[in-house]
Amino acid sequence: MRKFSLFASCIMLAVMISGCAGALKITRNTNFNFDADGNYIGFETLPIPADYTAEQAVKDGCYVTKNLVEAGGSEAWESFIRNSKDGKASFVRIMSIFDEGTYYEDLFYADGYYRIFDSSAADLTDHKYKYILDLRGRMSNAERDSRFVVLTDDNTLTFDDVMLSMISSSTVVIDSISPYKLVAGMGL
Fold this sequence. Notes:
Radius of gyration: 16 Å
Structural class: alpha+beta
Distance between the termini: 28 Å
Shape: globular
Number of domains: 1
């Protein structure tokens, strides 16, 4: 079950790593908006039209991926990473486009922690992570390198750890790997 959840999270996160730095001309949204039950409502307060395109998202400051490959908005992503590494509050909306549909993630850095909210997730409560790691490596039998961007409290987590947690059927192995939240699983 955890293996499937990690795989589904990887796909959705990769789709969402096409993040708008605030879709619909909102470029500096570093506010967390929650309902009375503690659920993030940022997707409700920034409605996204059904015909919203990747090109519009990039113009609005989003980071966009199509089928796990960067499609635009690298400046928004780099700005988010640079600002968060400098300890500055930062926000980026990620738009991930797949043949099955489009997903969004809102990624925040504030008060020394990273937080991510997925438009397709049932759980929109606030989870804090100390680190964002950009992990690169090659899966066995792959023709080229792959990339995982993860949020975690363990800055020693490796590409091989994440890969092993996704493919292993052993709960002992999976439980031995530090918890993380996949932000993007993109092929390079």
